[in-house]
Amino acid sequence: MNEKIFQMINQEAFPTPFCPGCGHGILMGAILRAIAELEYDLKQMLFVSGIGCAAWIPSPHFKADTLHTLHGRAIAYATGAKLYNPKLKVVVISGDGDLSSIGGNHLIHAARRNMDMTVICANNSIYGMTGGQMASTTPLGSLTATTPKGNQEPPFDLCKLAEAAGATYVARHPVATPIPLIRTLKKAMAHQGFAFVEVLSPCPTQFGRRNAFPTAFAMIKALKSSCLSVEKAKNLSQEDLLGKVIVGELVNANI
Ligand SMILES: Cc1ncc(C[n+]2csc(CCOP(=O)(O)OP(=O)(O)O)c2C)c(N)n1
Ligand code: SF4
Fold first, then answer.
1. pTM to 2 decimals?
2. Confidence check: pLDDT of 24 > 80
């Protein structure tokens, strides 16, 4: 491991609690690398998470101030901290269930206010920690603990939601392509205003097993092949885009 990254982590907290093949570990590495490349001082940063597997990414692993808060309330805590100390670089890291199901209201209002913070949403399309219940992001037809016959409810497009609510930086990447993910995380953290990054992070244990992915690797491969860059998507018809997830920078108010 790169010496700089090694200095940024609480070594006694490792190994992580994540299942083998979980995307959240890749995301953790990508966030640390982005911060190292930006040469940010961890002492000037605050990491806030809610409850869920993804919420364990910053705490207890980062050697930094972290707030591991209540389920769904990470953005509310982050808003309070930012208002109290505007000099803090505030980064929220949590799951799709945490940020967009129980915490959806805080997400839209922080975006509407253009609160100066970065929100990194690890979207695995399910409530991983609690046994694989359906989330507001579960794709139509997917099998979960609470939809044994397939989900009948349309999922949120989290990036469209953040954009419509007023976020001034919005991007999406899968953990399957870490280099562009790191590049995007750097831009999001450097952005002044509300930056939202949806990171597609597979949960082989609760989602993959139920939905006919034989291995974690098969999930990563399928995720990678379902993604299409925003540049390539521009020239395609709605028909060609069926089943594809558009990734890249979707909103950047500074351009
Ligand atoms: C008020 C409240 N309701 C429900 C729960 C149970 N709970 C804990 S984590 C979680 C879902 C987490 O899902 P997500 O945010 O998608 O993270 P993941 O575990 O999938 O990474 C739920 C429902 C709780 N802790 N508190
Ligand atoms: S249950 Fe899913 S999200 Fe949670 S650690 Fe395991 S693979 Fe990751």
1. 0.98
2. yes
Residues in the chain: 255
Give just the sign of the alpha carbon dihedral 191, 235, 241, 222. negative
**150: phi then psi, degrees, rounded to nearest 5:** 105, 135
Helix ranges (DSSP H) in the chain: 3-7, 23-38, 74-84, 96, 104-112, 158-165, 178-190, 216-226, 230-233, 238-241
CATH number for position 62: 3.40.50.970
What confidence tens digit (pLDDT) does each residue in 111-164 have? 999 999 999 999 999 999 999 999 999 999 999 999 999 999 999 999 999 999
CB distance 69 to ligand 1 below 6 Å: no
Mean pLDDT of 15-23: 97
Residue 224 CB: number of other CB atoms within 10 A? 14
What is the spatial distance between Cα 132 and Cα 148, in angstroms, rounded to a whole number? 11
Q: For strand 245-252 and strand 169-174, is the pairing parallel, antiparallel, or unpaired?
A: antiparallel
Q: Which atom of ligand 2 is nearest to the CA of 24?
A: 8
Q: How far is ligand 1, taken at its centre, from the CA of residue 216, in Å?
A: 22
Domain span at residue 134? 3-252
DSSP 100-137: IIITHHHHHHHHHTT-SEEEEEEE-SEETTTT-EE-TT
Task: Please state, in angstroms and rounded to a whole number, the distance separating the CA atoms of residues 223 and 247.
Answer: 11
Structurally, how many domains does the chain consist of? 1
Task: Output the CA 56–ligand 1 centroid distance in Å.
Answer: 12
Using 50, 70 and 90 to split pLDDT, how confident is the model at 255? confident
Round the average pLDDT of the chain to a whole number and report it.
97
Task: Give yes or no for a contact between 150 and 143, defined as CB atoms under 8 angstroms apart.
Answer: yes
